[in-house]
UniProtKB/TrEMBL annotation:
<dbReference type="Pfam" id="PF01613">
    <property type="entry name" value="Flavin_Reduct"/>
</dbReference>
<dbReference type="GO" id="GO:0010181">
    <property type="term" value="F:FMN binding"/>
</dbReference>
<dbReference type="InterPro" id="IPR002563">
    <property type="entry name" value="Flavin_Rdtase-like_dom"/>
</dbReference>
<feature type="domain" description="Flavin reductase like">
    <location>
        <begin position="24"/>
        <end position="178"/>
    </location>
</feature>
<protein>
    <submittedName>
        <fullName>Flavin reductase like domain protein</fullName>
    </submittedName>
</protein>
<dbReference type="InterPro" id="IPR012349">
    <property type="entry name" value="Split_barrel_FMN-bd"/>
</dbReference>
<dbReference type="GO" id="GO:0016646">
    <property type="term" value="F:oxidoreductase activity, acting on the CH-NH group of donors, NAD or NADP as acceptor"/>
</dbReference>
Length: 207
């Protein structure tokens, strides 16, 4: 007997689910802490809930913006963005950068964060982040639903052209120590996060 609760996304029982469980089910998710800069010097820094790696040859990452917000528009205008690893030590400042500000206002300054220039791109990186990925935009699209109707969701894909790594997090055998870095990840709802601090290793089965 199937004991699962089933619903269609547009018709969920709001008595049972007053909060949409979708984001809690697809969790935890890496935070897309994205910095951008245009030719006129406009800088933006903001966290995105929908972010992940999408390929490794060449390495690519993507973030998705609900609405054409400053980060997405600046990334498309400049053709560049930088992803910064949000850690437990930077969690409060990362959260501060989610505050809605007028275009041109500097989220990094409000959060007390130093930005350093990129090496391969014009977009800056967060100085205190232990890992940053400089990216060149290679693809962008407005998403559509199953009926082909455009929705207010914008996907931006970047190829990684430069990598910054804190040497303190490189292990003796040359691995980046994610556990020690303690990345902060998005959980289900607006005020919920996870911290990656436990490593589980499983050998891949042989053919």
């Amino acid at each position: 007997m199937d004991r699962m609760v089933f619903y269609e996304p547009a018709d969920r029982d709001r008595t049972l689910f007053p909060h949409d469980p979708f984001k809690a089910i697809v969790a935890p998710r890496p935070i897309g802490w994205i910095s951008t800069r245009t030719a006129d010097g406009t800088t933006n820094l903001a966290p995105y809930s929908f972010f992940n790696a999408v390929g490794d040859r060449p390495p690519m990452v993507m973030f998705s913006s609900t609405g054409m917000k400053d980060t997405a528009s600046l990334a498309l205008e400049s053709g560049e963005f930088c992803w910064n690893l949000a850690t437990l030590a930077l969690a409060e400042q990362m959260n501060t950068t989610s505050r809605p500000l007028a275009r041109g206002e500097n989220e990094a300054e409000v959060a007390g964060l130093e930005l350093l220039p990129g090496r391969m791109i014009g977009a800056p990186r967060v100085a205190d982040s232990p890992a940053s990925l400089e990216c060149a935009v290679v693809h962008s699209t407005r998403l559509r639903d199953r009926h082909g109707v455009e929705v207010d969701q914008w996907l931006v894909v970047g190829e990684v052209v430069g990598v910054h790594v804190d040497p303190a997090l490189i292990t003796g055998d040359g691995r980046f120590d994610t556990r020690v870095a303690q990345p902060v990840m998005r959980a289900g709802y607006a005020d919920e996060y996870f911290v990656a601090d436990t490593m589980v290793r499983m050998a891949r089965p042989s053919a």
